[in-house]
Amino acid sequence: xxxxxxxxxxxxxxxxxxxxxxxxxxxxxxxxxxxxxxxxxxxxxxxxxxxxxxxxxxxxxxxxxxxxxxxxxxxxxxxxxxxxxxxxxxxxxxxxxxxxxxxxxxxxxxxxxxxxxxxxxxxxxxxxxxxx
Length: 132
What we know:
- The protein has six helices and no strands.
- By secondary structure, the chain is mostly helical.
- It has two domains: 7-65, no CATH class; 78-130, no CATH class.
- The protein is elongated.
- The mean pLDDT is 81.
């Protein structure tokens, strides 16, 4: 059945598909070809058919097992944050933080280490912002 298809038949079907006027009833040979493409394309990682198959699997897993739980690990780097330095008492314009205003990594680490309350305030502010 597939061997009887000509390149003109395939070109016509592609043109009709691109115009969204393709009807499944129009040509059984093209329908068979499309079924074979779906079967082959379903095994190609990243193809539209494999994504569709994965979406179906996700929906079926949600239906049978329930919605998934989400676990997030947040590890803020406080020595690299201008907000943490601001909480530590460093005079910074947070709207315009320039690299030359920030100190070296060692100096920032010293400031953060000597101001544990500022670090806790920074962490609290960051987590509240993320959860909001």
